[in-house]
Amino acid sequence: MFIRRLVLVFSIVVCGSLALAAAAFAAGGGLPPGQTIFSETSANAFFGTGKGGTPNGFFVFVNQGLNSFEPENSTGTATVTRNTMVQLQVFTANGGGGAACYVIPDSDFAVSRNLQSASLHTTLTTAKMCKGKGAPAIGKTGAAPLAANGVLPPSAGLPASIRVDVTWTGTGVTSTRRDRANFECLDYSSDSSLTLRSAVSDAAGTISMLTDSFTSPAAAVGSSDGTIDVSGSLSPTCPLLLG
């Protein structure tokens, strides 16, 4: 019950913080001038077993929609593309595991319209690793822990191929927020309108690296949709005004 309450609070905070992140995204997310219409779905879950020490388990975050990728040697320039991104962290009782970011086929991840259910059935391979630091372009600050900071591939400790199967089951949308945000700097401006929904969920999952089957109430499913209108060209000095 305590974990479920934490997840409920987390989903509300996520929904609220996404609105602030949208302005930052529009200001420096790599979008060209014009209107961008977006619709995204996401899910995350934390699985773990064991007491009194480092457990076996894994954390998974999935975002289908606009994702931002920044090369390791980049000076801060990111590329925004529409795809399905998975961020995975695996940990074992003997201190093994690792973390990495992957881009998978859209068909490997599905979310029901009312957020009552979701599923991830995919095989993560070295060839599918993100080409640089990956994070959701919309709502970076409200995403799950790994997504907030992005993950640089490749990661030591993970095999070349990992099978992950996770299902989420809940009662539907827990919270909804609608927001507008705008940003102006020199001759650049952006205006965004978005609706954010989140749902507390139970999850069950398996991963080929570990023999256990996992269940967890520490999971959430979310969606967002809206528009961002961009005018002008962003000066390199403008992102500094967001801090």
Tell me what the structure shows.
With 243 residues, this protein is mostly beta strands. It has one domain. The protein is 13% helix and 53% strand. The chain contains 2 helices and 11 strands. Strands 1, 2, 3, 4, 5, 6, 7, 8, 9, 10 and 11 form an 11-stranded antiparallel β-sheet that branches. A hairpin with a 2-residue loop joins strand 9 and strand 10. The protein is globular and about 55 Å long. It starts with a helix and ends in a 12-residue tail after the last strand. The N terminus is likely disordered.
State the main characteristics:
single chain; 243 residues; mainly beta; eleven-stranded antiparallel β-sheet; 2 helices; 11 strands; 13% helix
State the secondary-structure class.
mainly beta
Rounded to an integer in angstroms, the radius of gyration calculated over CA atoms is 18 Å
Counted beta strands: 11
- Number of structural domains: 1
Q: What is the 3D shape?
A: globular
Main beta sheet: 11 strands, antiparallel
- Fraction in beta strands: over 45%
State mean pLDDT (0 to 100 scale).
Answer: 78
Poorly predicted ranges? 1-29, 140-149
Helix content: 10-25%
